[in-house]
Design brief:
mainly beta, ten-stranded parallel sheet, 1 helix
Length: 325
């Protein structure tokens, strides 16, 4: 008798690029067992698929234009998305000048696993960080045309960053936001911010939910602050709702998951409170947050039936189903 173990990740829809597959699970016959080796082998515009694993991947430095795709996160909670429930957990991802034009999605980074901050972006352009679970995000230097969308983030630090044409939208931030941006073109919209906001400078700030119960700082120097919801009070103008009861906002954890608990409850004051009557917070606006970081239209393998054992030289009957989310 032989025991067979098969691990699957999402089906990635790619065209002309080369696809490099990474899996560090013992016994899985993947072309690459480390992400660093795949990055080194990749050419410009190649796609690196990082499969879910119970073993953490080492941190990486990305210095070329690549697309890195993981399976998503909280897969054991938001069920029916992936057959393999393990995330692709990476200690850290550092992105430098040669990484301009890269895209990272569906991975878990940092969480203090090996001292990694999560994402560190230093002086690059045209970067997309979409649908990740990360301990921290650091934006440093002159980093332009950055899209940070639909992520589950512990901490944001953009102290001294010149972040022009940068969009920070539909994210959840658990802890601190310190965005002492030095440019005038950062858009900060439709986020749910649970912790203290120390600074958001030179920004357009709208349709967010600021959940901190006390006014720790809320320093919005050289920013426009319009149509947000505050649990505390701030210096924002009368277009914003302030002093809102925290308990009135979200559906809560009971019957929900780590990230779906922040959907707006029936009667929430954040419903329709944004610009143009859209909902405030991470689930509002044109690009609402997607649970587990799984984008609309993304293919996933959501069911896998494999016999636990098969007799030697016997027939192995495997049933796989996939869906478009």
């Amino acid at each position: 008798m032989k025991t067979l173990i098969i691990l699957f990740l999402a089906i990635a829809s790619v065209s002309a690029q080369t696809v490099l597959r990474v899996n560090n699970t013992p016994g899985v016959n993947a072309p690459y067992t480390t992400i660093a080796a795949a990055v080194a082998a990749a050419g410009a515009n190649d796609v690196i698929i990082v499969e879910g694993s119970s073993i953490q991947y080492a941190g990486i430095t990305v210095d070329k234009k690549v697309t890195i795709v993981g399976p998503g996160y909280f897969l054991n909670e938001n069920t029916g998305i992936q057959a393999n429930l393990f995330p692709a957990t990476i200690d850290f991802i550092d992105l430098y000048g040669g990484a301009s034009g890269s895209s990272i999605s569906g991975v878990t980074t940092g969480a203090g696993l090996g001292g990694g901050v999560g994402f560190r972006v230093v002086g690059i352009n045209n970067l997309s960080i979409i649908g990740n679970n990360t301990y921290g995000l650091q934006l440093m230097g002159s980093s332009n045309n950055i899209l940070v969308k639909g992520n589950y983030i512990n901490d944001v630090n953009a102290t001294g960053c010149s972040c022009s044409n940068t969009l920070f939208v539909n994210n959840l931030v658990l802890s601190t936001v310190n965005a002492q941006n030095t440019s005038s073109t950062l858009t900060f919209a439709n986020n749910t911010l649970l912790g203290s906001v120390q600074f958001i400078h030179y920004s357009s700030i709208s349709n967010n939910i600021f959940y901190a119960p006390t006014n720790v700082s809320f320093w919005f120097a050289n920013s426009t602050v319009t149509k947000n919801v505050f649990v505390a009070t701030s210096a924002a103008d009368a277009t914003n709702l302030q002093g809102v009861a925290a308990a009135s906002l979200f559906v809560g954890l009971t019957g929900n998951t780590t990230d779906t608990q922040y959907r707006l409850k029936i009667g929430s004051p954040a419903i329709g409170a944004g610009i143009g009557g859209i909902d405030c917070g991470m689930y509002g606006g044109a690009t609402p947050y997607k649970p587990s970081g799984i984008a609309t239209g993304q293919h996933t393998v959501n069911n896998l039936l494999v016999p636990v054992t098969v007799i030697q030289n016997g027939t192995l009957n495997v049933k796989v189903s996939a869906k478009v989310n």
